[in-house]
Write a structure and sequence with these properties.
- With 337 residues, this protein is of the alpha/beta class.
- It has 13 helices and 14 strands.
- Strand 1, helix 4 and strand 2 form a beta-alpha-beta unit.
- Helix 4 packs across helix 11.
- The N and C termini lie far apart (53 Å).
- The structure holds zinc ion.
- Zinc ion (ZN) binds next to helix 9.
Length: 337
């Protein structure tokens, strides 16, 4: 370790749980943060400050004013310019710790790109807002033996659980199937900003244990910062008949392409990337005579009242103000092609 790192991380090195060897391990580590919203932006800042040498941040969305009360990395200007979260986070992390590599990737994590994005991770932190992506992460992480840390928060309530493949229960040992029906989301039930940072802090503590090689007791933590109460129980043992970690079936890795889908709790539909890149400047020029267009290097936003389309360079498109997939598909076909 060079003298500047030794000085920078001195208080963390003094902490016996980490020490100089732990710090060296962090500097060599690669953490992937899946979802860079409320949980993920906290993970990213904490791991950058702790000196994790490589961070990859994956997020499909852009910053909006309603994110700012709980998404610590972002500022008003990011929302005003509708900067993608992964790009805004990368920029901010470079100012927080310029000695590490932090890379933001503006994309939707899917079965098609999960191997490329998570394949060389030492750990994955769950900052997603939906079960489909969590089951995808669980399938991939178990298939490759990569530890990951589940986290979720809504209203004043949150839950975390680390998954160390082969050693602790995986997500499907505990929850064999995603919950059925509509679930409360931050958009429908609201969220207290400090529950997010509390849940994310526990996830980061588990990640630091795992990355430094410290012994970690796998526990499920549930907490409610309004009614009160923090509860930790040992994670249950692995299910000997778990479809994922026992039978090694990975259905979430097999879907090759996803149909248009509603975005968790938002009145919006996402159309998956078509597999061919979009020339954003040309698209903006084409749409300009038809309505209000805002473009930057990351996306083109086009208003077709009451709808708004946001098109990313890989063709992925978010259609706002509808939850009707047919309407979304038709707008996409009409304006993007
Ligand atoms: Zn399992």
């Amino acid at each position: 370790m060079d003298p500047s790192d030794r000085e920078r991380y001195s208080r963390q090195i003094l902490f016996p749980g980490i020490g100089e060897r732990g710090q060296e391990a962090l500097l060599r580590a690669h953490a992937v943060i899946a979802g860079c919203g409320a949980l993920g932006s906290f993970h990213a800042a904490a791991l950058a400050r702790a000196g994790v040498g490589r961070l990859t941040l994956i997020d499909r969305d852009y910053v909006e004013p309603s994110n700012l009360h709980r998404q610590w990395l972002f500022e008003e200007a990011d929302a005003a310019e509708a900067i993608p979260k992964a790009a805004a986070a990368e920029r901010r992390l470079a100012r927080i710790n310029s000695s590490i590599q932090a890379r933001g990737i503006v994309t939707d994590l899917t079965s098609a790109n999960v191997a490329a994005l998570l394949g060389d991770a030492d750990i994955v932190l769950d900052g997603t807002d939906n079960f489909e992506t969590r089951y995808l992460i669980n399938d991939f992480a178990v298939s490759r033996g990569i530890p990951w840390v589940y986290g979720a928060a809504v209203a004043a309530y949150g839950l975390t659980m680390p998954v160390i493949p082969g050693r602790t229960a995986c997500l499907r040992c505990v929850y064999p199937d995603p919950p059925a029906g509509a679930q409360p989301t931050c958009e429908t039930a609201g969220v207290l900003n400090v529950i997010v940072s509390a849940v994310a802090s526990i996830q980061v503590a588990d990640a630091l244990h795992i990355l430094t090689g410290a012994a970690l007791r796998a526990r499920i933590t549930t907490l409610d910062l309004w009614a009160g109460g923090i509860r930790q129980i040992d994670a249950p043992p692995r299910d000997p008949d778990c479809p994922t970690c026992a039978r090694r079936e990975f259905p979430y890795l097999e879907e090759s392409r996803r149909a248009p889908e509603g975005l968790c709790g938002r009145n919006a539909v996402q159309i998956a990337a078509a597999g061919r890149p979009v020339d954003l400047a040309a698209l903006a020029a084409r749409l300009a005579p038809l309505g209000a267009v805002r473009a930057n290097e990351y996306a083109v936003r086009f208003a077709v009242p009451p709808y708004e389309l946001t098109v990313f360079p890989d063709g992925r498109t978010i259609v706002k103000n509808t939850s009707d997939k047919g309407v979304a598909r038709s707008l996409y076909a009409r304006y993007v092609g």
